[in-house]
Specification:
Elements lengths: L5 H38 L4 H9 L3 H17 L12 H38 L4 H30 L12
Length: about 170
């Protein structure tokens, strides 16, 4: 027995969860790097440019989740006057599950990336020539796992639900 709207609700809940999880991780990661940078800048304000990239790097995970959520909403016709798809329970669960990789990977990687970049900021305060080599490159290594979460989510959304089959014929 299908409860009307439950599939659509699960899909939207999945999109919202991805943004909430990855966005929370990004804000925590940026908070970590921001504190490290603020400490360095009190003594060496000329390091602002070097620190900026490392401070904002953990914020990318939130954007990955937002892009994924917008993909879900676009497929569902969320931006039109009415939903143009009707997902059953299993399709809604598929979309919900598809949103988890970008959300969870974003949450965890953004926090760890914040810690790595904070270490890079502190290291670059003493050795500015190492800012890119160690600070940014090490931070990007953590970023790869957020990108893998994004890739998994996108592939699951593209191939996990037959979006053409769930489209509702709309009049008007």
């Amino acid at each position: 027995m299908e409860l009307t709207g439950l599939g659509n609700m699960l899909a939207i809940l999945g999109a919202a969860s991805a943004v909430f999880l990855a966005g929370s991780g990004s804000s925590i990661g940026i908070g970590i790097t921001g504190r490290a940078s603020a400490g360095v800048l009190t003594e060496k304000p000329e390091r602002f440019g070097l620190n900026f990239i490392m401070v904002v790097l953990p914020g990318t995970q939130g954007f990955y989740a937002l892009a994924s959520a917008m993909m879900v909403m676009n497929y569902m016709g969320f931006f039109s006057k009415e939903f143009t798809v009707s997902l059953n329970l299993w399709q809604g669960l598929t979309v919900f599950a598809a949103c988890l990789p970008v959300g969870v990977a974003g949450l965890i990687s953004a926090i760890h990336q914040g810690n790595v970049c904070a270490g890079g900021i502190v290291m670059a305060a003493k050795r500015p020539e190492m800012a890119f080599k160690a600070g940014v490159v090490y931070g990007v290594m953590v970023e790869i796992y957020a990108l893998l979460g994004l890739l998994t989510t996108v592939l699951m959304l593209l191939f996990g639900v037959n979006w053409q089959a769930v489209r509702i014929a709309t009049t008007g």
